[in-house]
Amino acid sequence: NSPLEVDRGMAGQQGAGAPYTPVALAEQQQAMEILKSKVFSPTAFNAPEDLYRHLAQQRRGFNFYTTTEDPKVHDAVLALQKGILDHVLHPVVLKRLTDSRLYGNGYDVSMFMTDLTEAIFAADARGDVNTFRQNLQMEYVNRLSAMVKGEQKAKYDTPSQNMAVYALNEIRDMQDRRRNVNVETEAHAENLKLVIARALDTNS
């Protein structure tokens, strides 16, 4: 959501408040906690195997010539998470976090990006990463990479780009500290580091 509340009352109108009032810091942090636990958490999409097994279209027949019949659970979950990231990492939203500091917003882009990175990486930073989180973490790293290199870079202000670089370095360090994880997680960590290295490579 926007970090601002907008009052469209006319100047001098009775009851009109300030045109722009930042949403309270506690409310913005609470919103992040909800995303962390309900959308980004390693357990956010835990469900009994039997439930996932029965996620099928009601009418099953032979109408799957161009696709497969099995439910695309990972695609559906990632689409939901992408929708959230589309909004919270939009260049206009990030610029607004910085501009609104000038009139009272206490949740700046550094706090927001730090919290978002933690929500996506911290819970399983020292353990195995499930496949939902692998998809989410790679999506996030790809978006951070686009903020510092490539065609999308120019859309982001300097504070946002700075925090993207900072987050990429933090994520790389997390992967370097991984020990005693399964092969799938080790492969995921190596792939993340490869993407980050390409993003931060000043020679390309």
TrEMBL record:
Coiled coil: none annotated. Pfam families: DUF4953 (PF16313). Residues 7-124 form the EcxA zinc-binding domain. This is EcxA zinc-binding domain-containing protein.
